[in-house]
Amino acid sequence: MLQVSEEAELPEDDVICNGLDEFTRKLTEDDARVLVDLLKLAVAGRAGPQASPAITRVLTGLAKENPTVAGMLTELCVTELEDAATDTEAMRSVPQPVVQESSHPYTDDVTLTGVVKIPGAEALRVEFDRQCSTERKHDPLTIMDGSGKVICTRSGREWSDWSTEVRIAGDELRWKFTSDGSVNGWGWRFTVFPLMPCAAPRDLHSDRRLLSRPLVDLPMCLLDSLLPLCTQSVILSRLAASLAMCAQLSSLAPSQRMWALKTLRKIVTTDIGSGLNIKALLSASYSSSSTPAPSRPISPVPQAAISQSLPAPQSLVPPTPQSLAPPAPQSLRGSTESLESSSSLVKPQIEVKQAPEMPLVSLLKGLPEALLRQAEYEDPLVRGGKHLMHSQFFKVLVGLACDLELDSGVGSGEAHKWAWFRRYCVASRVVKSLIDRISLPNGFCADVRKKLSEMLGEGEVLTLEHEDHTLFQHQHDEQLLLWFNRRPEDWTLSWGGSGSIFGWGHNHRGQLGGVEGAKVKLPTPCDTLTALRPVQLIGGEQTLFAVTGDGKVYATGYGAGGRLGIGGVESVSTPTLLESIQHIVIRKVAVNSGGKHCLALTADGDVYSWGEGDDGKLGHGNKSPYDRPRLIETMQGKGVVEIACGGAHSAAITALGELYTWGKGRYGRLGHGDSEDQFRPKLVEELVRYRVIDVACGSGDAQTLCITDDDNVWSWGDGDYGKLGRGGSDGCKVPMRIDGLANQGIIKVECGSQFSVALSMSGSVYTWGKGDYHRLGHGTDDHVRRPRKVTALQGKKVISIATGSLHCVCCTSEGEVYTWGDNDEGQLGDSTTNAIQRPRLVMALQGKKINRVACGSAHTLAWSTSRAVSTGRLPSQVPLEYDLLKEIPLHSLRNRLVLLHHFSDLVCQSISMFDLCETSEEEEGPKVDRLRAIIVSSAKETAFKKAGFI
Question: What's the whole-model pTM score?
Fold first, then answer.
């Protein structure tokens, strides 16, 4: 056995250049070949611990001084990788997954048992098929370990009943399935993946045998130094293809596959691979034969810095042999949890004629699908706090996709699925811009300019000095953030949202957010709400919610049943942040004016719910209340764009125009053709041929309304008092058109207590349903069974409307506010408690230019989103201690601060996808850690609280 001791290292005094001394510089190409064999033995553990770096140093030094040696070593590395990719002996040695399944559908009144044993496995991982469906509790599948100990029991109709991964220690598992004689279903299928120990069969080989076999560790030692010396496009093409193949080989160790993927990224995204012309490769088409070539799925590597690893996507379906060039590489789509010890299904792949770069093309063309699949799997685990960061595998994938600018081409028709990726790409490019001091991305600059335009006072002109990296260098940014963090009172930064907010009506529980008095009869400024500058206000049963421009939610009012989403509090009288979702960007909150539960819609199209859970209206599969927001898992990935709450049911619209409803089914309010309660969101089948654009849910004996993009309004549910708008009091259990509103350009529908409201594009208001308390605004308390235009608003263009339980409020294009209906709590704002029969101008708000209104059960709000004349003071001067900033205009400092805020928000939203620690200077990807001093503290704190670091 070769022995190279520490004494064999080259003395520093003898090193002349490139790691070579006077002796080693005389080594020839043949000598270098001998050294390669010695290096191969060294990396296999056949020499001392210093042998590998010592020999590597000499070989790389020879390559730098001798182009012939460089070419020989590069060719050797490429050949070694190609041989490793086609090493059938290694492939055969990898134990394969085992599939177990029932018949489909499964048989009644049976008891089935089975055993899976994979010799040599340290543990077994079980993944269930997404189609799994058995009768809950009556037809259970029980998984046991080799000793018969029960590990888990699975049954149910929903994917959430089966989705949790199962791991079993040892190389054996047993299962038992029992069914009764009642309703059955599709059945079950699961795949058992062996988690193998990191064995090293090469330890069993002789030196001669070892030298004859491919060893990926060899190019791992040499290739990084050889890449800058490689100029031949043919060699680079072969190298990229062989790396792509190795990245997909489960017979390789995790570190080897990750090295292959990272090296490939370095080649295709830097000047090294400029000769490859990646864009041309991706647009080319290839002819193929039918000769299969083996390949293996890749898996994500563990996050070393956190000592945690993410599980794999939950299903792994190999493509058919007919899937020719270039399919999305199943190798990526089937990535598993930790590369430490994993095995995957063998995928048939087509050998390509005259296209040696085909593995690279296949991998890159399949990258979007692989990335999306991995994100859909990992994201819930990271969001839920089970893992702090995304897997290293995912980070390499998303970095490669960003470097290839795939964000410009993905997501046609399903943009909601790619919103997170586009945010990451912008953040990554801004990081690079700030580090390298190059031009900022155009889209990022446009967003910052939009924020600034919303901040500027009248007459103030926007300048662009804040984008100038010569004016603002890194040390300037650091001082500016230091000033902001130490003396935040010097700065007033806000954009978007409202001007002054006025509230009135019922305030017994503090639902007006800081206004004094239990019954407020006149519009009163709400200073605490105004300070938040919300982009949305909405009220429920003695509650109020505010959504700010940066996606945070604040709640105030009555907290019974957890309806505020801030825990088990009785009530709060000032807006309180919903901390559990502060790391998530919320675009909208929905709550019925008489409702005790809420929905929140995120920027990514996910939905959270909280509050009372009766009738399953929270959508979590049960009737349990939740006093903090919880993700509705059934709606994940559906790209929700609109949400609505009733008193006992909920609704959501997807980007495709699909309508989902859930909760109490009585009177057919869910639109599924029956009166059954639904504990999880269910598609309204009757409307699948239409595109739904708005929805509203009523309270009590409730109705549901929606608008479709063919200019029709639909209603269903309870029909009492004619609130369905079709002329009678009959209810219906599926959506039916309201003929009186067809082709009227209806753009908004609302539901109060036993009545309905519609707003047209031209600004006309229609009401119908129960008429007492004058809630319809027609001048009488008669019930109205078909939509009727509110004549008192004739000639006015209404732009915003809201309904309370028994009253209404609207505002016009002239900035005027009108109210009508019940007034027992002063909710109409006329200083009395007398009901108003027809819309009446709120005199106290004249001249306020109101363009938004909102209601709760018996409280009302109005505000303006117009630009303020003044946006707050700038500092009078730069403090002496911030000397680098003293020559920069104060308005430019403010603008740069807004830019840094926006940058911080972007980075911190994607922080789990970045490497926070630099492993080496040559590592590809954005070096976020270098910018830690210019990330705004509030954004950083929010991100790390979410991740569990603090």
Answer: 0.65
